[in-house]
């Protein structure tokens, strides 16, 4: 018996009742079942799979729940096995399988909490306090010394990304930009409240160590997208040089309008800012499922929070590393780091930010190992 006939017989057993619709191609072994929308439920039931858009399936015929290859840099996805009918927009759909971990979550509706270790909270006397209140009406223009904890990161003369001072010796940023710099010894930091890099008096520091989270994901999902830069010399805190606070445990930012600020790789000379609403994780996950190609099975990882979703107000490609800052009682806390998004400036499509509060234990422990203490 030939190989093709054996494969056909196998799928006839699996797809009993649909054998009259089955077609097997020799090039990619795609099973073409019915093209009728009404029969998709029966296809799913027979095969114990789910009909989703073709790009929401991975190469193993599993539903892409992590956003891999759909966030950040896009890449093509190989053809899948079982074809459903096209969706209402005419997009091809494949019948793919839920990863077992997701099936358990959907069935049991349970989540696993990560064990926590309590450290003293950040308690610099003036951390997160603005010495300058903005006077400009445009929400995208930052003023001199408005965000005195901002830092800009270069590799020699090439702009890399934005970061923030959380200690006179430490810059907090996203891992994904710094990770790509081949020679980390070329990294340097400018900080001091300046907004225009052409005329700034900001002080330069060299980076002596880059610490990325050990679980930082380079597979395109950007999970654990956080890094620390240790400087060769501490900055001296003043009215124009400050550190931002890390949020204490239990402080909620729901229903809060926050700010993000920084330099963009497409226009790295002038600092910009924008005000955005903080979006709870569950709400964000629902919005991304409904309004983007990530699809209805996308699971927003715990290492992310969200902000934005207002038309015309957003961060965009090149803003990575910038802080999401929320104000409580005249104190600014860094609750997020710009990480990834689906498009820019789109209504009901918030951006994803590294979830800074859950990384406080990791930040403090890494610094304590180097005799740097935030108290």
TrEMBL record:
<keyword id="KW-0378">Hydrolase</keyword>
<keyword id="KW-1015">Disulfide bond</keyword>
<dbReference type="GO" id="GO:0005576">
    <property type="term" value="C:extracellular region"/>
</dbReference>
<dbReference type="Pfam" id="PF18322">
    <property type="entry name" value="CLIP_1"/>
</dbReference>
<protein>
    <recommendedName>
        <fullName>Peptidase S1 domain-containing protein</fullName>
    </recommendedName>
</protein>
<dbReference type="InterPro" id="IPR001254">
    <property type="entry name" value="Trypsin_dom"/>
</dbReference>
<dbReference type="InterPro" id="IPR001314">
    <property type="entry name" value="Peptidase_S1A"/>
</dbReference>
<dbReference type="Pfam" id="PF00089">
    <property type="entry name" value="Trypsin"/>
</dbReference>
<dbReference type="InterPro" id="IPR041515">
    <property type="entry name" value="PPAF-2-like_Clip"/>
</dbReference>
<comment type="similarity">
    <text>Belongs to the peptidase S1 family. CLIP subfamily.</text>
</comment>
<feature type="domain" description="Peptidase S1">
    <location>
        <begin position="131"/>
        <end position="368"/>
    </location>
</feature>
<dbReference type="InterPro" id="IPR043504">
    <property type="entry name" value="Peptidase_S1_PA_chymotrypsin"/>
</dbReference>
<dbReference type="InterPro" id="IPR009003">
    <property type="entry name" value="Peptidase_S1_PA"/>
</dbReference>
<keyword id="KW-0645">Protease</keyword>
<dbReference type="GO" id="GO:0004252">
    <property type="term" value="F:serine-type endopeptidase activity"/>
</dbReference>
<keyword id="KW-0964">Secreted</keyword>
<dbReference type="InterPro" id="IPR051487">
    <property type="entry name" value="Ser/Thr_Proteases_Immune/Dev"/>
</dbReference>
<keyword id="KW-0732">Signal</keyword>
<keyword id="KW-0720">Serine protease</keyword>
<keyword id="KW-0865">Zymogen</keyword>
<dbReference type="GO" id="GO:0006508">
    <property type="term" value="P:proteolysis"/>
</dbReference>
